[in-house]
Amino acid sequence: ERQLVESGGGLVQAGGSLRLACAASGFILDDYAFAWFRQAPGKEREGVSSISSSDGNTYYSDAVKGRIIISSDSAKNTGYLQVNRLKPEDAAGYYCGATLKPGLGEAWTDGWSYFYWGRGTQGSVSA
Hints:
Elements: E1 3-7, E2 10-13, E3 18-25, E4 34-39, E5 46-51, E6 58-60, E7 68-73, E8 78-83, E9 92-98, E10 116-117, E11 121-126
Parallel strand pairs: 2-11
Antiparallel strand pairs: 1-3, 3-8, 4-5, 4-9, 5-6, 7-8, 9-10, 9-11
C-alpha cells in the first residue's frame, strides 16, 4: 500500500522552528515531485513548498520564502519541511502530497495534481 505519514508537529513559540517529516511507503518518494501544503481553520489549503525529482528544483510560496527549507532523505524515503522564525499565521495543519510525475514546474501549487496525501500534522505557534 502506498502511503504518506507526516510527523513532527507540535506547539512552538513564535520565532522558533518547526521540522516536519513525511515518510513514504510503498513507493520511492524521490521518483516523484512532492510538496507540503497547509490549511488553517477557516482558510483554504495553500501550497508551502515543493521539490521536483526531475531537476531538483525547489519552489516556495511567497508567504514563507526565506524562512523554510524543503529537503528529502532517499535512504529514509522521507521528505522534510523546516519552518524557521515561526509566526502566528504559520499555525496550521501541514500535509505532504506526492504526484505521479517527476515535476510540475510552476503548477506545483495545484493540489489536484497530487495523487497521494498524508493525514497531516498540526503545527501550532504560541505568542
